[in-house]
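Holo model, nicotinamide-adenine-dinucleotide. Inputs:
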Amino acid sequence: MNEITHSTAVKFEQDAEGIVLLTLDMPGRSMNVLNDELTRPLAEAIARIEADTGVKGVILTSGKKQFLAGADIEKIFAMTDPRLAYELAQTYKGFLRRLELCGKPVVAALNGTALGGGLELALACHYRIAINDPKAKFGLPEVKLGLLPGGGGTQRLPRLIGIQACLPLMLEGKELRPEQAKQQGIIHELTKDREEMMARARAWIAANPKPVQPWDDKKFKWPGGDSRSPANAQLWAVAPSMADAKSQGNYPALTNIMSCVFEGGIVDFDTGCRLESRYFANLVVSQVSKNMIGTLWFQLNAINKGKSRPEGFEKAAVKKLGILGAGMMGAGIAYVSAKAGMEVVLLDSTVEAAEKGKAYSAGLLDKAIKKGRETPAGKGVFLDRIKATADYQHLEGCDLVIEAVFEDRAVKAEVTRKTEAVIPATATFASNTSTLPITGLAKASARPEQFIGLHFFSPVDKMPLVEIILGEKTSQATLAKGFDYVQQIGKTPIVVRDSRGFYTSRSFATYVMEGLALLQEGQHPRSIEAAGIQAGMPVGPLAVHDEVSMSLSLHVMEQTRKDFAAEGKTYVGHPGERAVVLMVKELDRPGKKAGKGFYEYPPVGQKFIWPELGKYFPVSKEQMSQQEMMDRLMFAQANEAARCYEEKVVMTVADTNIGSIFGWGFAPHQGGALQYINAYGVIEFVKRAEELAAKYGPRFKPAKILLEMSAVGKTFQ
Ligand code: NAD
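Output:
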């Protein structure tokens, strides 16, 4: 190298043969991000490459572990002026355009992950070589934050791999491993290490002194045809309506991405790029992207960084985990824990029952083998980590034991005592109860300060959340350990105080119950289900009630009634409860598991609403508007979440929002239950809640905290 300059974030090194090595390496950061600090020196470097006739080729790489993980989200989040967003996208695209038109070969040497703007930078290079590191990811995931690739991604990718192939990548925000990216034609070559990558890059430059991007080639033909080709015209006839049917029009990014690709497919490249900037600007200033970025980026990152984890405790890792009860939940917990590399002891009343729980892991591994994600040898190693047993002695040496036996205080107390007789005095004991207060369960423990609730969701291997519940005596050290375990298995922890229904079950119940109340009032069941889905919930309230089983909610209702009586309080039931009693007790239709609930579940074919439902819940002539029903379903949940926050059942806005999306599927485009109120406007929410309360009952009265906030103009932060 005969010349080295380190202009802040971009290192420019030119060797004797005129090959420039451009290294993205932002000082003081562990990762490169796309912001002015990076783009300014990048633009300078590009200008130099253009001007210097001595430059024969360029290799663009990164000095960090990853190549470039994307744009500066903070800056985009703060933008409220669409013109500025348009300019931002145009400026970045301008650099990229100059890079690919500089007349010299430019190779992206991808030493690690390239996502979003990072991949768009690579797409503007003439050739892409990546190290075959199974951890590296490539993709355009902007849609997950309600945005679209604004750096030319929606124009280069379809021209590179075709319209049909590029759509799922951008509409689902799929992240590809190196092999997959090569298969899709996004990356040209894979190498085993950096040295080989650099050698290949030099060789390519030597062999291709005057490369032209496919879309700048006069003879360019769209792979698979442009938007007017018969196959694509057919796709465009159905794809938008299919996407809308799925998303209910709640995600404008989907429409905008398709518009970029469709319109880009009938105009020239530069016009397509300008169109993309306009659609990008439209999304940047949209409420949906603000909701999604605020919650699914900033708040989720804060949780992952340990915002709710008490400070001052060293990070703990569970090496040996005990699980009591190998039923549906215990089996799932065993799988996710063994997957994270822990030694697992799975205990049930009999070895056969425990083995059955272990077989659940074997089943999941077999599926993974079929999909090529696991090998038979890997399955063997995985299963060797799980010991199925009925013998408590095997729990010796466990750092953590999670109880998932029947939901019965006496059974839980007995297994707690038996376990504590064996496990180390320092071990943590956790219960996965869904309804029983942790403080009460901890009474069976000789070490209540080491007793905690870890509330998993079903199916455990798919659901991303764990609700950590603090008993009265649970120590901060125990909370820290519980938090670390949840992160060890790759899930997101939220911290919740001990109270009836904890946070998620309590708030989720209001959705279901409101659906049942609507049914009782004579609203058409199909309109109710549609209202839930239109509002952004994954499943309608009647179908979801069938899934969680009505006999369970009847049991919870009866227990709550008893508990209230024992505490000398009056229990005011939800109007929806009558529907549960009728369905379970009188009509014997407890839900999906029994094959009959609000729906019929034929052995083959799709479920359908029980044809006789109208006999018991006659449809009234007065049908409400869909919007009225949507408001009732959403206000019920958001208001309850606000009450939980007010009562400090859940303590941070981040935990409340993320818990609502990850725990019970609260509309992600709204950014979670509290962000729904922010976006609606706290003052307007209070007004509308009072209206609903006057019409439908006091359950809609706005939470006290909302009245206080609206009086001083505050929002949830
Ligand atoms: P399940 O009935 O599928 O499994 C319970 C298991 O515990 C059975 O295999 C049973 O043999 C075993 N068991 C019972 N008594 C035992 C004893 N004395 N010693 C050892 N093993 C014993 O139940 P599940 O759905 O897995 O639920 C387990 C716990 O998790 C319950 O407390 C439940 O409330 C809670 N939970 C369930 C869900 C859910 O969606 N199913 C969600 C969150 C929490």
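The two ends are 51 Å apart (CA to CA). The mean pLDDT is 96.
Archived with the compound record.
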